[in-house]
Amino acid sequence: MDILILAVVIAVVVIGAISGLVVSGRKKKQLPPSAPSSTPTITEPPAEPHVGEEAEEPHEEPRRTIEEVELPEAQAPAPEAPAEEAEAVEAPEIEVPEPTAGRLVRLRARLSRSQNTLGKGLLTLLSREHLDDDTWEEIEDTLLTADVGVAPTQELVERLRERVKVLGTRTPDELRGLLREELLTLVGTDFDREVKTETGHEAGGVPGVVMVVGVNGTGKTTTTGKLARVLVADGRTVVLGAADTFRAAAADQLQTWGERVGAYTVRGPEAGDPASVAFDAVKEGKEMGVDVVLIDTAGRLHTKTGLMDELGKVKRVVEKHGPVDEVLLVLDATTGQNGLVQARVFAEVVDITGIVLTKLDGTAKGGIVVAVQRELGVPVKLVGLGEGADDLAPFEPEAFVDALIGE
Ligand code: GDP
Questions:
Q1: Ligand 1, closest atom to CA 250?
Q2: How would you label 376-387 residue by residue, b for 16+ Cβ within 10 Å and e otherwise?
Q3: φ, ψ for residue 69, nearest 5 deg
Q4: What is the pLDDT of residue 7?
Q5: Where is the composition biased (Acidic residues) (predicted)?
Q6: Does residue 152 lie in a domain region?
């Protein structure tokens, strides 16, 4: 009899323990029932993201750095992809960004400062009856003031001198046409300015990966957020990687941008390893099956070596998943020569594939487009023309030059 009672007690205890385990196991998988509305659960960072997660027990083990971990090569989507989270992304109110085509035309008025300095300034000078040496010097100064750069300025002045001489008398229309042509040649119509996101797909289904680099304050994080909108507007799905772990607000800022267009943001612990976050972002992107993973990186320029180590590492680690499609350098157009110095430093650190020039709305120095392309030998792909969510425009040489000289 005693044995029977003992057996019943043991059975009750065992059943109780098992059901407790099941409940707590389920709880883990569930989204918290009443997350505060200001921070939707779906964009909560995966707990302690770290590299090689699926290859090891996620608990207890001390966090390891990227170097210490053997990274898996191309991985199949993990069977335990966070399906609930992926679906829940649809939950918040999602905005529909403006189409990207024609954005530069829409925003052309924002280039008015550059237009007055560069376009109208040049046209006025070229319309003078006598184009003497002093006038040509003024034309040269106008171009230099607009940050076109010394070599391109000299080339342009030479070409204009030649063509004006051949032309003889000049009507305003002829002058405008001539200037348009020459400015277009300078800006370049042959560059491929599309933001590439397809390399990974060709190499086996990995999402396209775009890294955004640049010094803090240039508008890097804002631009990453706006670029997510550009991609979404073009019909692509996006995961954001908040690898700028050194600026506390950057991840929040990026997450907010992401939420607006339904893009999931992968975050890491504050001051955590940026490369680890970047790796996890691509991993998440793979699991969710999105088209593009956009990675915002840290832009501290205290020491070049530090930056070099960090950015180089982020890129190398991300490449464990597959090729990086684009490394976009964000430059603040208002910083002139300083921007060019930054461009040089970054180009030594990583292979820049495209330039994003921000704050072109706040400067008369639109000529920086020409100078920076010359400096790096890569095209300006996007330009920022305001603080509005859809004020990032694909760069179109014709629309840009037309805006400068006024049609
Ligand atoms: P980060 O430190 O480089 O990540 O810089 P943020 O993304 O935080 O941007 C710095 C400031 O620049 C913010 O106030 C942005 O709104 C502003 N900004 C970014 N792009 C543009 C632009 O194209 N035009 C203007 N006027 N402001 C911009």
A1: 4
A2: bebbbbbbbbbe
A3: -105, 135
A4: 52
A5: 82-96
A6: no
Q: What is the pLDDT of residues 235-282, one digit of tens each?
A: 999 999 999 988 889 999 999 999 999 999 999 988 889 999 999 999
8 A C-beta contact, residue 329 and residue 311 = no
Domains identified in the chain, total number: 2
| 340 in Cβ contact with 329 (< 8 Å) | no
Placement of tokens 């390893």 in the chain: 273
Instruction: Name the burial class of residue 371, with classes exposed (0-12), middle (13-18) and buried (19+) by CB atoms within 10 angstroms of its CB.
Output: buried
Query: Among 17-26, 121-130, 212-221, 336-345, which stretch is predicted with the lowest mean pLDDT?
Result: 17-26
Assigned token pair, 118: 């560069």
Query: Tokens 């707590």 map to which residue?
Result: 24
Structure tokens at 290: 């999105």
7: in domain: yes
Tell me, in angstroms, the distance from the centre of ligand 1 to residue 214's CA. 12
- Domain end, chosen from 87, 102, 123, is at 87
Q: Is 300 annotated as a binding residue?
A: yes
Please give the biggest Cα pair distance in the chain: 122
Which domain does 55 fall in, by range? 43-87
The preferred substitution site among 215, 220, 222 for testing ligand 1, maximizing ligand atoms within 8 Å of CB, is 222
User: In terms of domains, do 26 and 55 share one?
Assistant: no
Tokens of 296: 């915002």
202 within domain boundaries? no
